Amino acid sequence: MRAVLLRCPPGCLATAFGSFSASRNKLAPQSAAAAAGPRLLYSRNTMHYQTEARGRPHSPDYRIYFKTPEGKYISPFHDISLIAENEQENDLPTKKPKKNESEVLFNMVVEVPRWSNAKMEIATKEPLNPIKQDVKKGKLRYVANIFPHKGYIWNYGALPQTWEDPNHTDEETKCCGDNDPIDVCEIGTQVCFPGQVIQVKVLGILAMIDEGEMDWKVIAINAKDPDAKSLNSIEDVRKSRPGHLEATVDWFRKYKVPDGKPENQFGFNGQFKDQDFAVEIIKSTHEHWRALVQKQTNSHGIECKNISCNESPSKCSAEEASDVVASAPAPCASSHPVSPAVDKWHFV
Q1: Are 73 and 324 in contact (CB under 8 A)?
Q2: CB-hemisphere CA count at 13 Å for 168?
Q3: CA-CA distance, 217 to 108, in Å (whole number)?
Q4: Is the pTM higher than 0.70?
């Protein structure tokens, strides 16, 4: 029998054998009055969390930090729970029947909105892990437009409290993890924004191999999407959205080619694995994350500062977290110009 998640208090790291459920930190939703403040220009509300931008957009110093409605800064990597708890009404949990594993909803941190090009990502090696734009060889990274696509073809992000462990070798592909939270492609109709936290239903998973590293791609849909009730498996996606899964494989295979890199490869002959398989992979990456924040494994440079994981040696106070954000560049309303070359189409 395999270890799975256990419902536990905020910050508790626990496993059990049995039902697959957990609770994220309980955060009261912010009122409209509280949201309207002097930092409205730089802040956004996202489910039970807020984001605060620092630095200048489209520049190397731009960061998106996360905080609770009470104003406590948190890590989206470590302090937002993997499992999304039931929605609440009047501060009381809604009564719902016990869920099986296929009905569990996961929190997703959106890094990149659909149709955009800037490669935004959780900064895993910075304190509090804000979202930043990736930089390679001193230049900001933008994904190429591979004809007929424009930028990312889904909302792209990560599941918090997961880690693809470079110390772990996958049994099937014989590849080690890529040292990041597990990636998610959200295929709903809404175009999200960077830093948005949404609840998603997992449908399947793709085993991408990126330069020899295991880089799983979870396929999911926003639980509030109009199509969420009718999409319950990867086969439902294949039947109701002809070409969508094939386009996803094609996109991941070719997106680095315009940068002079070879095509990416895939495990399982590029076939999507089902929901049950995906949940097992997610469980495994959550267990690897637990070992990471408890310093039971080589962290490979990952920054584990958090405010809620009681068993983590890297847990810090709210004041320490505030100091991290205070040291970041001041917010800037204007964006740095983006090169027109970002809009170029590439035929691969």
Answers
A1: yes
A2: 23
A3: 13
A4: yes
